[in-house]
Each structure stands twice: as structure tokens, then as C-alpha cells.
Specification:
Blueprint: E1 13-14, E2 21-22, E3 40-41, H1 48-55, E4 62-63, E5 67-68, E6 100-103, H2 108-130, H3 138-151, E7 155-156, E8 169-172, E9 175-177, E10 191-200, E11 203-212, H4 218-236, H5 245-257, E12 261-262, E13 266-270, E14 277-281, E15 297-300, E16 303-305, E17 311-313, E18 320-322, E19 328-330, E20 333-338, E21 341-344
Parallel strand pairs: 1-13, 6-14
Antiparallel strand pairs: 2-3, 4-5, 7-10, 8-10, 9-18, 10-11, 12-16, 13-14, 15-20, 16-19, 17-18, 20-21
């Protein structure tokens, strides 16, 4: 990360992008001519403000005298993928790919491949959700997900992307996204987002959902319900010729009804033959240009919070948590723009 100024600069981040700073004087970042020449850098450290916020997160801290704030656990070694499984190009590269220029638009063969990868991703996510219970570690969930993906001849897309060490993202409670599976055991009352992406026959299918662990309180249930509704309502707005900004307006309008915050720093994206492509999907109200195209695939993945929408990135350079420790939830689908609207590819 570049040197921090007195205010945190906005960052444009996808569902699996890590801590990448895009310099801009604009109040938010989207696809515009200047973006393609923007400076994107990785960072292993946080700015002073973020460090202060993180250092306040004592192991003894509690939210409402009940919930402990997350702390990093032990991360196990990277899992093996059999040699015969096709791997995305970035796996053997020392460079992290950015957002590929141009939309992912598919012919009939491409659509069939996207349906296959999306269906597998949905099946893996459904299976992962059945594992959620008090006492299981996120590392155990990762191992089970990894095995199911490779058993089906696919590659777990997050593994090795920009150095990400695991096959799935597991984001608990105040973790907005990019949580790295580790030795922490799930506790009664937790909520957990599991983000699954598979690379099958050269195409990525990307999806996520937030699950309840044990007895979850009513406020958390409402957060999760409204986040799911935001995604559903946004998908219903999609069709050829519809402006992408309608997605952000739909999500923001619904979240506002329940006084929930919409995270701005993380975005949806085109997906298909590459993991991240145009367009960038903003989940908040915006005036960005661009319309949906027949045959196009992209993700919508709103993240809502019960408090602050600002994030603090842990020193692992991936885990993003709300700065005030408030709960966050997320849902995600990969969709295909059709003549009649949009088809969800990531459902069983």
C-alpha cells in the first residue's frame, strides 16, 4: 500500500482481491478511462490509522458483552491439487492478475461451460453449509471443500490467487470477506460466509452464502435475511440494456429500509474464462456508465453491515473486518444475461 494520508483512500476490491489500493480522487471507483492506467500495489502493512484500530482489538474485547472479536488462528499448509486437473494461468505465475479488460460474453459452448462450473460451485457451497456447526474449524471446512472440488475434476480458484493460501474463503461475524480458513472453531451464535469458486474446464463459477451456526440472535438473522434479499432484488433488475448502476441503487435502497450499511470497498466483477473481468459491479448508489449485454456473465455480491462499513485489513493482507466489530453478511451469485432477464448459474 502506498503511504497513507490523513484520510483512508478508497480501494477497489473484488470478492477475492486482497488489499489492493487504486489511487483515485473520485469518491468511488469504477470502470472509467483513467482506471486502466491506475496504479495498483500490494502491501504487507497497514497505515497508522488501521494499525491503531487493529491494536484495539484485544483478545478480551467483547461485543455487547457476549461475542468475542475475531483473532487470527493457525493456518495449515497449502493443500495439494492433482497434476491432471487443469489450473488457471495465475497459479504458476508470480504476478497477480488484475481485472481483465473487456466483458465475459459467451457463445453456446461457453454458456454450457459456465452452467457446469456454476452448478458445481453451487453444489460445493451447499455441501459446505451442511458442515457448519459449533466446534468445527474453518480449516476443516476448507479441507472438505477442497476435496470435493478436486474429486469433481476442478480447481479451487482462490488457491494461489495472489498468494491466497486456501481453497475457500470463510468470513465469520465481523469479517466482511476474504477470511482465511484456520484453526478457529466455530461457536454457537456465529454467522459465517463461505465463498466458493471453482475452475472447471477453463471456466470459473463463483458463489457465496452466509450460514447460521447454532442459535443465532434475531439481529443477526435479520442482517442475513436482508442481505439475501438485496441480492435477489438486484438480480431481478438485470436484463440486456439495463444500466449496471441499477444494481447498486436496488441494493442500497433495500438496505436503507432496515438501516443497514452497504460496504463500498469490495465489488462484484465479470467472471468466466478469467476470474475477474469487466464490468466492476458496485453495490451502492453510483453514476457509473455501462449497460448489460446479452450473453454476459458477472457476479453480484453485496456485503451489508450492522454498523460501520469501513474495513480494517489484517496483517495477512486478506482478512477484511469491520472497523467497529459489527456483524457483516454477504451473498453472491454468478449470473448470465439472457433475452428474458438474468439466469442464476450458481444454483443447484
Amino acid at each position: 500500500m502506498a503511504a497513507c494520508t490523513s484520510s483512508l483512500q478508497p480501494r477497489l476490491l473484488s470478492s477475492i482481491f486482497g488489499d489492493r489500493l487504486v489511487h483515485s480522487s473520485a469518491p468511488f471507483l469504477g470502470r472509467n478511462p483513467g482506471f486502466k492506467n491506475a496504479s495498483i500495489q500490494f502491501s504487507r502493512t497497514l497505515c497508522n490509522l488501521a494499525d491503531i484500530l487493529f491494536n484495539r482489538r484485544s483478545k478480551d474485547d467483547l461485543i455487547n458483552n457476549k461475542r468475542k472479536l475475531l483473532q487470527p488462528g493457525k493456518v495449515s499448509p497449502r493443500l495439494h491439487v492433482p497434476d491432471h486437473i487443469l489450473k488457471p494461468p495465475y497459479v504458476n505465475s508470480h504476478h497477480t492478475p488484475g481485472i481483465a479488460s473487456g466483458p465475459e460474453i459467451h457463445d453456446e459452448m461457453g454458456k454450457e461451460s459456465m452452467w457446469a462450473s456454476g452448478r458445481l460451485a453451487a453444489q460445493v457451497l451447499e455441501y459446505a453449509g451442511t458442515l457448519v456447526q459449533p466446534g468445527i474449524t474453518t480449516d476443516e471446512i476448507d479441507k472438505a471443500v477442497h476435496q470435493m472440488i478436486v474429486d469433481n475434476g476442478a480447481y479451487p480458484s482462490p488457491l494461489g490467487y495472489g498468494g491466497f493460501p486456501k481453497s475457500v474463503c470463510t468470513s465469520i461475524n465481523e469479517c466482511i470477506c476474504h477470511g482465511i480458513p484456520d484453526s478457529r472453531a466455530l461457536e454457537d451464535g456465529d454467522i459465517i460466509n463461505i465463498d466458493v469458486t471453482v475452475y472447471l474446464n477453463g471456466y470459473h463459477g463463483d458463489t457465496s452464502a452466509t450460514f447460521f451456526c447454532g442459535d443465532v440472535d434475531e439481529d443477526a438473522k435479520k442482517l442475513v435475511q436482508v442481505t439475501r434479499e438485496c441480492l435477489q432484488k438486484a438480480i431481478l433488475r438485470c436484463a440486456p440494456g439495463v444500466e449496471f448502476k441499477q444494481i447498486g441503487k436496488t441494493i442500497h435502497d433495500h438496505a436503507d429500509k432496515f438501516r443497514l450499511g452497504v460496504v463500498r470497498q469490495f465489488v462484484g466483477h465479470g467472471v468466466g474464462r478469467v476470474f475477474h473481468a469487466d464490468p466492476v459491479i458496485l453495490h451502492f448508489r453510483n453514476n457509473e456508465r455501462g449497460c448489460m449485454i446479452l450473453g454476459q456473465t458477472f457476479t453480484i455480491e453485496p456485503m451489508l453491515t450492522m454498523g460501520s462499513t469501513r474495513s480494517v485489513i489484517w496483517d495477512d493482507n486478506w482478512t477484511a473486518v469491520t472497523e467497529d466489530g459489527s456483524l457483516s453478511a454477504q451473498f453472491e451469485h454468478t449470473i448470465l444475461i439472457t433475452e428474458n432477464g438474468a439466469e442464476i448459474l450458481t444454483q443447484c
